[in-house]
Structure formats: structure tokens, C-alpha cells
């Protein structure tokens, strides 16, 4: 996409003679490619971002705000929940290009076998279940399953992969997850109830045995093998399931209201402050061009677009595009603008692991989540100050 965009930009741009150097790297090499090179002649000017580190880069002053690039038409064409993800301290630092939306994927045939037709969505729509509905569904699924190696719902805690989805489950009984200052606030009646619920699902055999030793990928593979009725999944997982012959639909994570939640993140372009006003001007001109070029915007159809206009134009051509587009307003982004999110990821899953294994009670797990995760966030702030 960026190669095509750079060529089209150069063809029509007459302010400067622009040369693009586009580098690709593994996400594990971000520190080496972005952070370590910042302030050197090798530093990037534009950064196609989908990183937990964006809040830290913004705090350090490495990124430039992009409000002057975002016109009213572009702002109105992207859901407010997506803009919120990319806004830090009141400033837009990433212009979203496409998104990844995670919901629950559900085996329709297993639902039908359990007599749960009333909970099935019409056509290719998203199912919205209250927490009470969800518990009824899981109970009926469990009762209908006769194979001891098949289960109703996912659960995992072996590592930090998919931890954001477990956080979203903690919202099922009204826990907001964070307080007004962005600190973890799971040690509340609602948070403790959600942790109790997770342990109850485990104790009742609704989730796989020994879930504390499973990782997300294990659960996805169980779903592909039709040994799991409900599992977290994104559009790629949905296509994989369909290609394996599974009759699948999606549902939001449960909530008391019944609207439910999906977890979402977006990728887009950030502008690094290299101190060169000419380069900054050209970079902003490139961003304006990219987001106004209809041909380049078609590249977003390879994943999930963030722009309503593109979704509306192609919703009848691409499976599930409309359903995901209509679901954007239910998105939660658990990272928010917290620093040291990797530090949070290093400790959160351990508390879920110890809850499932019986080493911690729900009350102890709630206190440990708040203590360890907030310590990680504070460490992020401390490291920045140093």
C-alpha cells in the first residue's frame, strides 16, 4: 500500500522533489527500528503504527499532533470510538487506516443442537447477549455436549496472549476496569463478581479443563476442531472457520445491558518529529493525499476499514463487512493511553492463572490485579521521567 501511495503522491506533488525509503520490520524489532533510531539520521519520518508504545512516544514528545491533517469530512467518516483510541491528551497522534475487531465466534450447529435457536442472530449480524443470556447459553451448551473433550466456552491463562479479551470479560457484571484517572479498578463489587463468575465457569466445566495452562491459540484450535462452541475470534479466524466448513457467526462479549462489547484496535500513520520543517510539511501533505485518494483507500478492504463511506460502498460485496462496521460503537480499547502497557501484560495474566488454579480467591485476584497492574503503569511513568 505505501509503495503505491508514495508513487501516486510523487506523480502529482510539485512542492518538493520527494524520495521515499520504505522499510518493513517485525513488530518485535520496533525498539531497534523506531526508538533506538529516533534523533539520528536514520530516524523514520512516518511510522505505520499499531503499537502499544504510541502513548509512550507521545509522552516523550517524539510524535507530532495531526489535527491539522484531519478535516471535518475525515473525522465524521470514522467512528468516535476509533478516534478515541488514537487520541492522547486531547491530541490525535495516529490517523487510523484500518482496524482489527475481536468478538466471540460461535459454532451455529452446536447452538442449534443445544436448542438455542432463540439466541441466533438473523443472517450475518452480530449477536448481542446479556450476561444472563450468556450464562443460559453456556449452561445449555454444556448439558448438550456428551464428549468429555468438548466444551462450551474458551478460557486460557498460560501467557499474556489474548489478555485484553479476558479484561473485556471482566466488564460482564458492570466493572469499568479503570477509574477516572486511568488506573485499574477491578477490586470493586462488580470486578470481584466477574472474577467469581470466571472461576464458576471453570468449576462447572463450561471452560476447558486446566485452562490456566492453555493459551489463546489452544482455544482457537479447539474451536477449529469443533471441540469448543464459543471462542474469541477476529475476521481472519472467522474466514478460517468458514473455510474449514464450520457454520459460524459472531457475538459480542456479554454485558449487563445486552449490547455487549468487542475489543478493537486500529493501525494507522504517525508523524515523528524530526525537527526538519520541510520534511514535516511534506509528510503532512502526503497524509492528506493518502486519506483523500480513493484508489489507495481501497487497500483497507484487505482487512477491516475504519471509514464508514468505504464500508457502505462495499458492504454488499464482502462478507461480514456491514456487521463489523455497525458494531464499531460497541468497541472498547483496554490499552487507553497508558504507559508501559507491556508491563501490564507481564503481570495481568498471572492473576487470572492463579485464580483458575485456586491459588487466589476472586477477592485476592482483584486486589492483585489492581496492585500489580497499577504498579506497572506507575513504573512506566517513572521510567519516562528518568
From TrEMBL:
Pfam families: SBP_bac_1. It comes from the Bacteria. This is Extracellular solute-binding protein.
